[in-house]
Amino acid sequence: METKPEPLRPDMFADPDCSAGLQPFRFGDKWSGMVMRCLEDGRRRFSELRVALHRVTPKVLTETLRAMERDGFVKRTSYDENPPRVEYELTALGRSALQPMNAACDWARTHRPELVAARDADPEHGRG
Amino acid sequence: METKPEPLRPDMFADPDCSAGLQPFRFGDKWSGMVMRCLEDGRRRFSELRVALHRVTPKVLTETLRAMERDGFVKRTSYDENPPRVEYELTALGRSALQPMNAACDWARTHRPELVAARDADPEHGRG
DNA sequence: CTGCATCCGATCCGATACTG
DNA sequence: CAGTATCGGATCGGATGCAG
Question: pTM score > 0.70 for this model?
Answer without folding.
Answer: yes
